Fold this protein.
Amino acid sequence: MKPLPALMVAPNGARLTHADHPALPVTLPQIVDTARACFDAGADGLHLHLRDHEGKHMLDAGLYDEALAELALAVPDMRVQITTESVGLYEAAFQRRLALATRARLVSVALREILADGDEAAARRMHEAAAERDIALQYILYAPHEVDSLAEFLGRDRVSRAQLLFVLGSHGGHDGSPAMLPPFLVRLEQLNVTPDWMVCAFGRPETDCLLAAHDAGGKLRVGFENNMTMRNGRRARDNAERVAEIRRLTAASVRSKAG
């Protein structure tokens, strides 16, 4: 199984629209254009959300495959991860089926969502089937205690081979903070597991949160799904500008430590 991309862009999410930012990509052509610009700015991965003709969140295996094909032509060296996020519209069983139903080899699943119906056996079968098909499931964890929940669900050995996303903050104006990251890492240390982990963060502190994750050895997810503000407080022109800032600041951090 290939590791997570080092710098993944999440350009739109499930909730935001052009009313939130005119450069937010909603249609597939807009997503493809954004992917090109973000790849050129330094992102090696894309977290993919699709919308229906009214701009609403949509999970559909056939449309995912269409989008994956378009993105493979436009940015063949960019790895694409599809989301299974429910946004209150899809049930756990549907999400588990979708995780296995497309050509995607990177799929994000929220632990609390795929277990929402209490069917742990079905969720384990999904995990095992994904491993057999070389599909990398990235488990989204919203709180440090969910690291323990994942270990109980998968077992510690599988957690060490898993891909994780630690979410700092939440929708609705609950900004992330770099101080939210250490409790996740403490849980990993206590369990003695070494997964491939990534961080995303909501709100203006996104940049500082990602720099803290980078310094701690994590991978990064940046983009308008979580934040539209540059580190200095200015509104970003587009997703590519956010990618470029994170790429520049992390490179400066590496140079500083090397010097």
Observations:
- The mean pLDDT is 96.
- Residues 239-258 form the longest helix (20 residues).
